[in-house]
Hints:
By secondary structure, the chain is α+β, with helices and mostly antiparallel strands. The chain has three helices and three strands. Strands 2-1-3 form a three-stranded antiparallel beta sheet, covered by helices on one side. The longest helix has 23 residues. The protein is elongated, with a radius of gyration of 19 Å. The termini are far apart. Keywords: Membrane, Transmembrane, Transmembrane helix.
Amino acid sequence: MPFTYNCPRCGTASRPYVFRSGAEDHGVRHRRRRHDGDYPVREYIQRIAWRYAFARAAAWRPSGGDAIAAAAAGLLVLWCLWHALTN
């Protein structure tokens, strides 16, 4: 079951995260951006139910490091193909 971060001061809730640590990280970023690092009263991490069959796949997003690694791997494959065809 996924987790969301909820801030009662702003009235916002995060997108669903597969792991609790993802929702906690979202809370850390939210506090830094919106509340200058202060902890809003009664903020919490909530466990929610999946709403539809493909929600689990939709909740996962690649991190910046994943995107950089994928781009580097793609460039390496293209370079190998170019090198093989030109030599």
